[in-house]
Automatic annotation (TrEMBL):
CDD domains: ETNK_euk. GO terms for biological process: phosphatidylethanolamine biosynthetic process. Residues 77-91 have a biased composition (Low complexity). It comes from Cerrena zonata. The lineage of its organism: Eukaryota, Fungi, Dikarya, Basidiomycota, Agaricomycotina. GO terms for molecular function: choline kinase activity; ethanolamine kinase activity. This is Choline kinase. Transmembrane segments: none annotated.
Length: 490
């Protein structure tokens, strides 16, 4: 691999206005509160190593909601996705919640009703839901007399951690379709619903990003529904769609971190999460059902040392060449979390046909990490016969990456300096960003490798059906981390 990847172009000074805008001058600090046959993923211009063999064990898929147009669903339409449900907390703290926990956030109306997701087909359930909508004073729905027997409730997905429904009133089409989310007990999962709800509310109410949260009730919330369809893997790599995603990511990255985090000190999510998840990951690998070969392949003792070495190298690179901007990042822009509006409003900017959803992982991070993780998601197909497989052949080419960067940089407003002077060609800016993405690429593998181990607990303890192979996913990600670190660090 050419060493030119790691060298700042000589004609662009580290002291230039653009360089400061692109890299930022943020300091690192602490956040007070808060396999079957596999193909390796490869980063840009990194050679692929030998794939792992068929050694992964199956693990429990805690399904994500499937974002579809409501007209395509029937009452019993099951979730079609096999993607790994990333229900972990962005604050990386384990919460031992029960079904009795109540999640509220300041600024949202709350109803003291509680819904039983198992009874969603009953008139009594619909009546209770109408009461909730009146209590939270939802426009339109609360302003008219409605019959519970005329409410249509369509199941989107359901699990112990979340049951999601579309709610409509066919006899009065002027009433907007709603998305109803009912929480289940989540004991043992790393999840912070208060954190997620807070992020959703801030992003939607102050930045018009993501779905609006209309209100909460004792064990759930009511959200905005988008007439949209989740992207497919081929759609995500379409040049036009990819440029739209780049623009939307740029908009999210312009969110003021302090608006979401407040005055508390924060640490970038990838460092915080890896540190917080290592202990529960070790507990999982200590289970009797875990084979010696799995422990050897994942080898968390070795990983922890490798991670610290990589982080130290990365810190030195950023001090020498400039750091990637610290931004409020999504950290999980896989195709299932990207919706395309079916009927966009006239005059809507083209890139806003893409809606980003599922902010469970949204947190401060580097811009380069968020982009690198998105590029790794190009290699995934969670609807394939082997959904944990990451196929290196689908990693974006340089042309595809630069297509994304061009849109991202343009919408970030980084093409000129703060005083209006020109600060380097667009190609120079894209080259710098590409180098930063290269350097942060292993961090994405590392974070989700440890995550995959933690998520495998239920199946390894005998409680899962093994539809998604979390251990196989963790092995694939871990191999990617180690391969890319070897290529980056002499």
């Amino acid at each position: 691999m050419s060493n030119s990847w790691f060298i700042l172009p000589r004609f662009l000074s580290k002291e230039s206005n653009f360089f400061r805008a692109l890299t930022g001058n943020h300091t690192f600090s602490s956040f007070r509160q808060g396999k079957t046959e596999m193909s390796s993923t490869v980063g840009p211009e990194i050679a692929s190593a030998h794939s792992l063999g068929p050694r992964g064990r199956n693990a429990l898929p805690l399904r994500r909601p499937v974002h579809q147009t409501s007209q395509e669903l029937t009452d019993d339409t099951p979730s079609a996705t096999r993607s790994p449900s990333r229900c972990s907390s962005t604050t990386s703290i384990e919460f031992d919640e029960t079904a009795g926990d109540v999640v509220r956030v300041e600024g949202l109306r709350h109803s003291f009703e509680r819904l039983d997701a198992r009874r969603y087909k009953t008139v009594a359930f619909a009546g209770q839901l109408l009461l909730i909508l009146r209590n939270i004073k939802l426009p339109h729905w609360a302003a008219v007399e409605l019959s519970a027997s005329s409410v249509k409730i369509q199941k989107v997905s359901g699990s112990l951690t979340n049951a999601v429904f579309f709610v409509s009133y066919p006899s009065n089409p002027s009433l907007p379709i709603l998305l109803l989310r009912i929480y289940g007990p989540s004991s043992g999962n790393m999840i912070s619903r208060p954190r997620e709800l807070h992020v959703l509310h801030v992003l939607s109410s102050q930045y018009h990003i993501g779905p609006k949260v209309y209100g909460t009730f004792e064990n759930g919330r009511v959200e905005e529904h988008f007439d949209s369809t989740a992207l497919t893997p081929p759609e995500m790599r379409d040049p036009q769609v990819s440029s739209w995603i780049g623009a939307r990511m740029a908009e999210l990255h312009q969110v003021d971190i302090t608006t979401v985090e407040g005055s508390a000190e924060w640490e970038i999510a990838t460092k915080k999460n890896v540190r917080a998840w290592l202990h529960p990951a070790r507990e999982v690998l200590a289970l009797p059902s875990v084979s010696d070969s799995i422990r050897k392949d994942l080898n968390l003792d070795s990983f922890e040392a490798e991670w610290e070495h990589y982080m130290n190298w990365l810190d030195s690179q950023e001090k020498q060449l400039g750091a990637s901007r610290r931004v409020f990042a999504h950290n999980d822009t896989q195709y299932g979390n990207l919706l395309r509006l079916n009927n966009p409003k006239p005059g809507l900017p083209e890139h806003r046909r893409i809606i980003v959803v599922d902010f469970e992982y949204a947190a401060p991070n580097t811009a380069a990490f968020d982009i690198a993780n998105h590029f790794h998601e190009w290699t995934a197909n969670y609807h394939s016969d082997i959904p944990h497989l990451l196929d290196s052949r689908r990693y974006p080419t340089k042309e595809e990456r630069f297509n994304f960067y061009q849109s991202y940089i343009t919408h970030c407003g980084l093409s000129t300096s703060s005083d209006g002077d020109e600060c380097g060609s667009l190609n120079e800016q894209m080259t710098i960003l590409d180098r930063q993405v290269q350097q942060w690429s292993p961090a994405s593998h590392a974070m989700y490798a440890v995550w995959g181990i933690v998520q495998a607990r239920e199946t390894l303890e005998g409680d899962g059906d093994g539809e998604f192979d979390y251990i196989g996913y963790a092995r694939c990600r871990m191999e990617g981390f180690r391969r890319e670190v070897r290529a980056l660090i002499p």
